[in-house]
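Narrative of accomplishments. A recurring question from our advisory board has been how the design workflow behaves on a single, concrete structure rather than in aggregate. To address it, we present the structure tokens for one chain from the evaluation set, followed by the sequence designed for it. No filtering or post-editing was applied between the two.
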């Protein structure tokens, strides 16, 4: 099953969006025993730094004391997740949606085939300004990372899976982008992918408290597309919080061949934290060499 992670819409909803609606910031804190809550607090500043590079065409949000208002916003943004209506008294409903679309500098060439995973593929060459890097972990063998820039100001990075999944992928990719070193290389041969909507597990955020507020429900979904022309990633995060609730804690030569599960990151230059990351098993990649 494909898994994705992005802290940007989560942080944008938890802090700027709720603050703008309420007029004051909720002092969200993490349960020491809750790893996802701790991660969101840790990644708050770098996540909001990435959010500050995005305009309303990429990152937008909605907040209300009415679930219907926020749920309509999610539907209008073509996401199926919907918050439970728990009334309006002492309630806050927030959602943030991020939509990244990056066209490659030069469209790739179809007609390639990845024998190991039995999928058609396309090639992006030197004219697409592909860069190659090596990452040397403290334990294990070095491996190659390939970067493909887009015209939207972010790049697609691809590497072999490292064994890390879920939200830990954000930290894994942060370490790789920080320590990777550029090396010689040629183009890259990539599979196509089209994931219409995948749920992202954020249930661990339920019970997170900030002052008098406590999160009652947390939902997230992501979409991903990779074709010879572009890469796109969309994510929606929504939560409801109640004020005054009792706190609780719930437990060609030198081409790189991506003939493996697709482990990727979308990055902004000058930021160690990736905008978004994901892992798509080979059997969920598209059978076509291109998805229009």
């Amino acid at each position: 099953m494909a898994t994705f992670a992005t802290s940007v819409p989560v942080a944008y909803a938890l802090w700027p969006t709720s603050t703008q609606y309420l007029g004051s910031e909720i002092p969200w804190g993490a349960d020491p025993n809750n790893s996802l809550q701790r991660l969101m607090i840790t990644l708050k500043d770098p996540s909001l730094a990435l959010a500050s590079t995005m305009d309303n065409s990429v990152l937008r949000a909605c907040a209300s004391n009415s679930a219907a208002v926020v749920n309509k916003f999610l539907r209008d943004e073509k996401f199926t997740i919907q918050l439970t209506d728990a009334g309006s008294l002492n309630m806050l409903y927030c959602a943030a949606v991020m939509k990244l679309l990056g066209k490659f500098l030069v469209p790739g060439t179809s007609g390639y085939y990845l024998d190991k995973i039995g999928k058609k593929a396309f090639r992006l060459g030197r004219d697409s300004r592909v860069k190659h890097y090596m990452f040397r972990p403290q334990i294990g063998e070095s491996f190659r990372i390939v970067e493909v820039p887009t015209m939207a100001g972010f790049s697609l990075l691809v590497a072999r899976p490292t064994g890390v999944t879920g939200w830990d992928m954000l930290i894994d990719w942060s370490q790789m982008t920080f320590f990777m070193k550029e090396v010689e290389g040629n183009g890259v041969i990539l599979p196509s992918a089209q994931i219409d909507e995948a749920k992202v597990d954020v249930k661990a955020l339920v019970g997170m408290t900030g002052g008098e507020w406590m999160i009652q429900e947390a939902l997230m979904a992501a979409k991903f597309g990779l074709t010879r022309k572009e890469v796109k990633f969309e994510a929606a995060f929504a939560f409801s919080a109640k004020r005054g609730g009792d706190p609780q804690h719930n437990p060609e030569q030198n081409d790189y061949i991506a003939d493996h599960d697709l482990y990727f990151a979308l990055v902004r230059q000058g930021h160690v934290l990736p905008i978004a990351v994901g892992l798509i098993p080979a059997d969920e990649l598209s059978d076509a060499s291109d998805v229009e």
